[in-house]
Amino acid sequence: MRLTNLSLGIALGLLTSVSAFAAEGVSTKRLHPKAAEFEFEGPFGTYDRGALQRGYQVYKEVCAACHAANLLSFRNLAEPGGPGFTEAQARALATAAKIPAEPNDKGETTDDKGTPLMRSATLADRFPSPYPNENAARASNSGALPPDLSLIVKAREGEAHYVYSILTGFHEKAPAGFKVTEGKYFNPYFEGWNITMPPPLTENGVTYSDGTKATIDQQAHDVVTFLAWAAEPKMEERKRMGFGVMVFLIVLAGLLFAAYRKVWKDAH
Amino acid sequence: MSGPSTYNPKSGLERWIDARLPLPRLLHDTVHTFPTPRNLNIWYTFGGILAFCLGVQIVTGITLAMHYVANANLAFNSVETIMRDVNYGWLIRYIHANGASMFFLAVYIHMFRGLYYGSYKAPRELLWIIGVLIYLLMMATAFFGYVLPWGQMSFWGATVITNLFSAIPVVGSHIATWLWGDFAVGDATLNRFFSLHYLLPFIIAGVVVLHIWALHVPGNNNPLGIDVKSPQDTVPFHPYYTVKDAFYLVLFVILFAAFVFYSPDFFGNPDNYQPANPLVTPPEIVPEWYLLPFYAMLRSIPSKLLGVLVMGGAIVTLVFIPWLDTSRVRSCRFRPLMKQFFWGLVVCCVLLGYCGAQSVDAVKFGIPMVWVARIASIYYFAFFWLIMPIIGLIETPKKLPASIAQSVLGDKAAAPAE
Amino acid sequence: MAATTSDAGTRRDFLYVAAGSVGAVGAAAAVWPFIDQMNPSTGALALGSTEIDLTAIQPGQQIVYKWRGQPLFVRRRTPAEIESAKAVDVNSLPDPLARNANLPDTALANDADRATKPEWLIVKGVCTHLGCTPTVSTPQIPEGEYGGWLCHCHGSEYDTSGRIRKGPAPENLAVPPYTFMTDTRVKVG
User: Fold this and answer.
1) Does the model's ipTM exceed the 0.85 cut?
2) What angle do CA A192, A195, A196 make, to 5 degrees?
3) Distance between CA atoms of B226 and B402, rounded to whole angstroms?
4) Which chain B residues contact residue C17 at CB under 8 A?
5) Strand C135-136 versus strand C147-150 pairing type
6) CATH code that applies to domain B33-279
7) pTM recorded for the entire structure
8) Which of C12, C66, C117, C154 is catalytic?
9) Could you tell me what percent of chain C has a pLDDT over 90?
10) Which of A121, A248, B16, B252 has its CA 20 to 30 A from that of C15?
């Protein structure tokens, strides 16, 4: 009897506090990012090549519609430490992409109807932006600016875990009493819990060429791996060099310590 | 001790150069035979470590400047080009960014060492003041440097700090405009900050020469705080301290490398990986960790002008330390009371640093952080202006050893010549 | 004086030598990144290669491209121009060498060694005298006597194979490294 009363009391208390969310300004601080395993973390972590290639596919087919990645060039896809496409594959991916063309002989950059003239990208070109400028981006996204994804993993506290949590956090139910703002979506991993981006990932939204099952979790994992590489293409080289440097320094420290003791032996 | 040179050129070449430019002699006297107290401990290796840090920052900085573009539209991307395309650019950039943090870690240890062992006391007052000047120049250099990547924190940190000058009555806003070269922080500001960031390290190098010169007149202090009385108290700098400094330098570099290679963004702020946006303020504007204690002091005072004065006063206070401490005894090893307050100062500085990283209205364990900052700031000023003068007069110091040699060698030491 | 005597003890010397050499090796390895960072970045190297689409170029027409910061002449030669280029005796030329980056330095300036596909002559548009950009000669507006190019700076004249024939320039116009990816697409550099 007392336990039932107690639990009823607790439930009532919780409900009251929950329903007072918006009214009392109860914290809508974002939840701590999910603990997820990424193979590139840790001092010996490397990027999984398959994940990078699948992640690029997710970026290209899902994210690139709204998000630019201006710091990446097509040649990066074939460079060491990255997705490991061959130069031919990277060139094919580049040729499939269209970017605004340089002015033609008449000095025009648009055709008669005002549509910008486009050309195929080459390896040297940067990834194309989905919008020509910030205003166009905001106009197509309810006033919000989809951030460039080149550095997103380093530009957010929680890094890869934060981005992964956002992508997989849309299915969570809003607590009773919390009203989702009109035109936005509930995501408790985003500060304020209201995010303008609609859930980008759907089950089997992408068909992976290597046959991997494209669950939301898999897509999120792969695209976050890709974005982690996009933010730090040199990570593998950094960790590799780090190991050699640390070994060298420890050996040197050992030798110097022995020399130091030898020199000072007579002094005391 | 500076005295007549004992240099004896061994080869014809050395003799030829020395007769025309006494550089070999200078190196011999200052680095090779320089009599150094035989009891210097690990805390005395940080001077050499600091010189190494300055060298590293200059070399990495000059190579970065070969690729960096100081233009508001291009700066952020030029840094990313360094990270992605320039051969070893990522390495040089991470060394430079983490090198700044290591530089300040070393300088704080170096300064606290000076406080603990009384290295600021006569006849080393000017040595200490020159050190404060180097510290000031370092803070200015670091501030200018952090603006250069033109990220969100670069821009807004610059805005907050330059806006402080507008606190000065009458001329304040004119000074701020003069610093900006515009109505607000912008391209003009970025360019001049780059120029000054390139210039100041070389001024630091010159002042460091004065610092070492001022040190070499009386010679090093030591953990006992007692003067060198006989040659038995010292050993030649080479090989004793060259090998010791080299060993501890490598340990320092191991820590440095751990950050550069395994956690290069540890000291940084994620907001600085977003390009600067003058229209959007980040939720928290925070300087780099080594400026946090002063930032905390500044924010703990509700009045803008008073906050600036308190922050400035905290640094200016350091200049007066040689005259604020009334004790005849140098080293805290023999000052049981002062020792406690010293550690209190260390705790207070760490607390201030912690407060500086919190938001202004943060409350932890039921205590508003702003009050912790206020109390810590009061302790800071009380330590130098009240505790130092008073403790020196009322404290009973422990008995000092007869000599350094006596303390180190025990009975094997000969009695010092009176 | 508590000075160290130079002890001939081999163990201590070996330790010093070992520590010193390991330190020196480390210092040398540490220097390399600072030297290599001045080499062209991967971005610069990527732009070092240009792919050119040849379909729009008419016979007798030259297009000027920018390659590695300098002009590049891509000229679609008419049969007459090819004939006149082949008819020249290499030994009579001021510069008998091919100056073709695709061939060994000793190759001679036969037209076949200047243009692998005779219809397409690809040369750097940089006069080998002092670096000006020569003007192309067309049947409508001839420049120089040899049907190739005339450099207006100091009067050097090049033929339809880009070889120097008259004037102060010491060498034939340089042929850059190139490969035909298809019949209508060439990658230079």
Assistant:
1) yes
2) 140
3) 9
4) none
5) antiparallel
6) 1.20.810.10
7) 0.89
8) C154
9) 67
10) B252
Q: Which residues contact B154 (CB under 8 A, 6 or more apart)?
A: B146, B147, B148, B272, B276
C4 part of a folded domain: no
The minimal CB distance from C46 to the residues A75, A263, A266 is found for: A75
pLDDT the model gives residue C69? 85
Residue C159 included in any domain: yes
Q: What is the pLDDT of residue B4?
A: 77
Spatial separation of the C-alpha atoms in residues B197 and B234, rounded to whole Å: 40
Within 8 A by CB and 6+ apart from B271, the residues are: A155, B151, B152, B153, B282
CB contact under 8 A, A252 and C26: yes
Q: Are B387 and B342 in contact (CB under 8 A)?
A: no
Whether residues C80 and C23 share a domain: the answer is no
What is the rounded CA–CA span in Å between residue B272 and residue A219? 28
C3: pLDDT strictly greater than 70: no
CATH class of A26-44+152-258: mainly alpha
C154 flagged as catalytic = yes
Say how far apart CA B134 and CA B203 lie, in whole Å: 9
Is C5 a domain residue?
Answer: no
Beta bridge partners of A100: A118
User: pLDDT value at position B416?
Assistant: 47
Phi, psi dihedral angles at C44 (to 5 degrees):
-65, -40
Tell me the per-residue pLDDT of B172-228, one tens digit each, with 9 for 90 and over: 999 999 999 999 999 999 999 999 999 999 999 999 999 999 999 999 999 999 999
Interface mutation vs chain A, best among B42, B84, B234, B266, most A CBs within 10 Å: B84
- Per residue in B261-272, pLDDT tens? 999 999 999 999
Report in angstroms the alpha-carbon separations of A268 from B223, B236, B408.
16, 14, 7
**What are the residue ranges of helices labelled H in chain A?**
2-19, 21-24, 49-61, 87-96, 134-139, 159-168, 216-231, 235-265
- Strand order, beta sheet including C50-53: C50-53, C185-188, C178-182
Inform me whether the C-beta atom of residue A51 falls under 8 Å from chain B C-beta atoms. no
Q: Which CATH number fits domain B288-396: 3.30.379.10, 1.10.10.10, 1.10.1900.20, 1.10.287.980?
A: 1.10.287.980
Total tally of structural domains belonging to chain C: 2
User: Is A124 touching B (CB cutoff 8 A)?
Assistant: no
DSSP per-residue letters across B37-74? ETT--GGGSHHHHHHHHHHHHHHHHHHHHTT---STTT
CA–CA distances in Å: residue A36 to residues A39, A161, A164: 10, 7, 8
Does C22 score more than 50 pLDDT? Answer: yes
B244/B239 Cα distance (integer angstroms): 8
Residue ranges matching CATH 1.20.810.10 in chain B: 33-279
| Cβ within 8 Å, pair B81-C23 | no
Q: What does the pLDDT look like over B319-344, one tens digit per residue?
A: 999 999 999 999 999 999 999 999 99
> Does A267 contact B38 at a Cβ distance shorter than 8 Å?
yes
Confidence of residue A88 (pLDDT cuts 50, 70, 90): very high
Q: Provide the chain B residues 60-89 that lie in CB contact (below 8 A) with chain A.
A: 77, 80, 83-84
Q: Is C181's pLDDT higher than 90?
A: no
User: Cβ C42–B239 below 8 Å, yes or no?
Assistant: no
Shortest distance between the Cα of B262 and any Cα of chain C, in A, equals 18
Place of tokens 């200490």: B128
Instruction: Return the higher-pLDDT residue of B4 and C118.
Output: C118
The minimal CB distance from A122 to the residues C11, C16, C51 is found for C51
Angle at B56 between CA B53 and CA B58, to 5 degrees: 110
**Confidence bin at A20 (pLDDT 50/70/90):** very low
Tell which residue, B303, B304, B298, B312, has the closest CA to residue B352. B298
